[in-house]
């Protein structure tokens, strides 16, 4: 299913319209929809698509050569021996296509795993062979660190040569209803909390009536597609997966301070900072600081959270219960998930409430706030005022007591700005007393719909 991606598609189409050589780097995590985007872009355009697999360089070149021969209907090309990929691109360039030709090399990073000289080879291909052609070359890959290192970093021979670069992210929550036409908002929030916005994962839950049955079938079963997915992703990205796994499991279990994470690992903070930096670079975790901090980068109040909801779910419930799952006792793990599912989803609900507040108010920034003794789920800041908010993802209606507690905590925010609105977000609605109060006071805003 092709959902949204309008900005990325527009970038590719703009490249296609230019009557000159274009070079795009497209990268993003596995299953995020890169190939689907490329197929949508190709449409009926003249295109050569080649998927690299981990085989010998000679076999890869022969397969690519065969695809090019099929495209140009050239049996002679199919039978000759080529010494390297540069010769094949020289053949393509010599054809001088009048209508722009799209050439896609998917999973490009595997070429450099096989031959470290590949980026230098493609530097020559771009600079000397394709420079004056009407070709759109797209290098696509799913191992983020390798793609960045090989194509975008300052040390890469290809640095500065691309005409566009697209990092394809997971879909935003607002697009989930395209996958699940009949789901309620709360059901969509729960799906997003488990699967994030990864299209392939969402498609797997498409026919599920009950999220827990879908979790058991698609994640907890040791024969299922998603059972070891984060392990495969991390093992491709990092050299010491055990340390990374332990850090992520520690964060997922509720430890967010750097010192506490290091302590759980039996290490000094200095010994894990490089691992933390790598996980941030891979977009798996992020550092959060109180929204009121003037220098966030230097703040010592930073807490670390897992950004990817599926990783958070997997490290909290799957990895920590592998011994039970390996013997087929998924019922035990599913029981643990059900016991505190609202509590697990609450973090995602807060994230979505922050996005909603930022989108629907004239704010400079919005995020969490905390001190040594208090925390507020969201604080939005403009040049002239603040908004503050509390989020409750529970089966209980939110009442006046929650509003009063929010007002008391908000007094402790050390900003010389008036509070314009008190926002209350609730999964299960609001008490009649609070609704009546909000009807008479425009500073109180009750939010049930995030979409």
Compile the SSE list and pairings.
Blueprint: H1 6-17, E1 22-27, H2 34-42, E2 47-51, H3 57-72, H4 75-79, H5 85-94, E3 101-106, H6 109-114, H7 118-129, E4 135-141, H8 144-152, E5 164-167, H9 185-195, H10 199-204, H11 211-220, H12 229-237, H13 241-252, H14 258-265, H15 269-281, E6 285-288, E7 303-306, H16 309-318, H17 322-326, H18 330-339, H19 341-360, E8 365-370, E9 375-381, E10 386-392, H20 400-410, E11 419-426, H21 432-440, E12 444-447
Parallel strand pairs: 1-4, 1-5, 2-3, 3-4, 10-11, 11-12
Antiparallel strand pairs: 6-7, 8-9, 9-10
Helix pairs in contact: 1-2, 5-7, 9-16, 9-19, 11-18, 13-14, 13-16
Detailed description of the structure:
This protein has 451 residues and is of the alpha/beta class. The protein folds into three domains: 6-167, Rossmann fold; 175-339, Winged helix-like DNA-binding domain superfamily/Winged helix DNA-binding domain (Arc Repressor Mutant, subunit A); 345-447, Trna Endonuclease, Chain: A, domain 1, CATH 3.40.1350.10. It is built from 21 helices and twelve strands. The chain has helices at residues 6-17, 34-42, 57-72, 75-79, 85-94, 109-114, 118-129, 144-152, 185-195, 199-204, 211-220, 229-237, 241-252, 258-265, 269-281, 309-318, 322-326, 330-339, 341-360, 400-410, 432-440; strands at residues 22-27, 47-51, 101-106, 135-141, 164-167, 285-288, 303-306, 365-370, 375-381, 386-392, 419-426, 444-447. A five-stranded parallel β-sheet has the order 2-3-4-1-5, with helices on both faces. A five-stranded mixed β-sheet has the order 8-9-10-11-12, sandwiched between helices. Strand 10 (386-392), helix 20 and strand 11 form a beta-alpha-beta unit. Helix 13 crosses helix 16 (309-318). The longest helix has 20 residues, at 341-360. The model has no long low-confidence stretch (mean pLDDT 93).
